[in-house]
Amino acid sequence: MSSNHIHTWEPISDLPEDWKASLENANVLALMRTWHERMVALRTKDLYKTFVEKLKRQWAIETGVLEDIYTLSEGATLALIQGGLDAALITHGDTDGEPEDVILKIQDQHLAIQGLYQFVSGQRPMGTSYIKELHQVLTSHQDTYLARDTLGSLVQRQLIRGAWKLWPNNVEHPDGTRFEYCPPEQVSTEMERLISLHESHVEMNVPPDIEAAWIHHRFTLIHPFTDGNGRVARCLATLILLKENWLPLVVTRKERTAYIDALRAADTGNLKLLVNLFGELQTRAIREALSLSEDVVKDSTAIEEILESAKQKFNQRRLAHDKQIRTSISTADSLVVLAAKRLEEIAAEVQELFVDEKAQYKAYEFHATSGSGKAKYHYHQIIQCASELHYFANLRFYQAWAAMAIVMEQRAEILFSFHGIGHETSGILGCSAMFSTKQKDEEGETAIGPVSPLSDEPFVFTYLEDPTEVQRTFRKWLDRCVVSGMDRWQKGL
Fold it and tell me: Which residues, in sequence order, are CB contacts of 88 under 8 Å at separation 6+?
């Protein structure tokens, strides 16, 4: 996973002195505090345990794909995540290797992440001996690695497991530039420094997303093993997260470009992109976990589970009247107003384009606040958009929307839906943005076209966040979504 990039080795650096101001993500930390409240009720449920097991399998598969240890089709990946790590679920057309060999490597990686959970529960301190053990587990069925000989030719060399490198493993680029990692004779010193700095960060209460990004990047700069460094780095980052009851760091092939770009930015001293990426991946996993909760209750028929569920719901009813919930609803109300005002401005600009048109084209904004009769409109589009983004839109807890219609031969709509995230009344709310078209069919009925999300993730906020800061970040997200929606509209002209 290299790029045409020059880097001269130097000892690893600590976090910047202003790490709290420059790297801390208040939105992610607020979401995690809210998640921890819900996790206590979820973690003993069978469906949640199944969800975490699937995350582990996905982690095990994708960490090898990222390193080009093997290729695996998305269909086979999904089958292995859902059905278990069984070579029978892979055909020769799904991978570039023998299915049995690929499964053995994936199982090594799965064993490693299982070991991370055991490590956390055992309260063993992180040290160089444990990192070497991780490397041994991760590479149990990898005998060789690809390297260049003195003539520049690619050759297979034997991999020494669980031992620091004996030879430089710098990356040479075709144009003659190279990326220099830590020299072999400095590895032991640098790894001890990595552990020492990490321990000081624990004492400083550095947030898990920042520490995971820091230790991942600094470890890759050392590159202490001959091969397998990326896999170990993602293990260490995941370990940091698990220690604080966060979820595993699952970086998939879809995030490969963003992941590499963030690492390259960190090479230049900018760790922010990597911290943000790790935060986004955690947010996505938490949304999916929160959307499980109602099904978790249905999954169990034991009377104890039913009574516990009833108890939780009674507690949640009381929580719904609490000041915290009212705060999140108040923030959501303010965002509806912001969205409606911005869409009204855009609609006015579009209307000006129609002045010289003979046809009666028009553009206008319309919205519905929470509790109003029209708040329940657009149900089909909202649910479809949430499904595509893999979370549950809780329209019972909160429902409001703001939209802009552009009416020509067909009607185009840009819609922003505000609702709860997940089945429970947790105080976590979100906004999804989508684009769709409507037109009359042959029988005069309104037909809704495909619903397209205007962002890869919904905008998520909680009662723990400062409303002013939420509004500030929402405006930026809102404008990006409006630009995306307007681009889709003009391309359809």
Answer: none
Question: CA–CA separation, 7 vs 5, rounded Å?
Answer: 7
Q: Which residues does 335 contact at the CB level (< 8 Å), separation at least 6?
A: 418, 431, 470, 471, 474
Q: How far apart are alpha carbons 185 and 248 in whole angstroms?
A: 33
Residue 430 contacts residue 459 (beta carbons within 8 Å): yes
CA distance 212 to 163: 23
What element of type H or E holds 288? helix 272-290
The answer to whether 42 touches 52, Cβ cutoff 8 Å, is: no
- Look at residue 145 in the predicted model and tell me its pLDDT: 80
Non-local CB neighbours of 197 within 8 Å, separated by 6+ positions: 12, 14, 218
3-state secondary structure of 172: strand
**Sequence ranges of the domains in the chain:** 19-290, 322-491
Confidence at residue 310, expressed as pLDDT on a 0 to 100 scale: 65
Amino acid at 216: H
Closest CA to 43 of 280, 293, 256: 293
DSSP structure class, residue 87: G
Counting as low any pLDDT under 50, the low residues of the chain are 1-3, 294-302, 321
What are the φ/ψ torsions at residue 114 (nearest 5 degrees)?
A: -60, -40
Specify the pairing of strand 446-448 against strand 428-440. antiparallel
Three-class SS state of 56: helix
Between CA 14 and CA 144 the distance in angstroms is 34
pLDDT at 297: 41
CA distance to 247, 284, 429, 437, per residue, from 43 (Å): 12, 18, 22, 41
State residue 64's pLDDT score: 95
CB 181 within 8 A of CB 193: no
SS3 9: coil
Residue 143 to residue 12: CA distance in whole angstroms: 30
Residue 105 token pair:
């490597």
Pick the CATH number of 19-290 from 1.10.10.10, 2.40.320.10, 1.10.3290.10, 3.30.1360.110: 1.10.3290.10
Residue with tokens 């590479």: 139
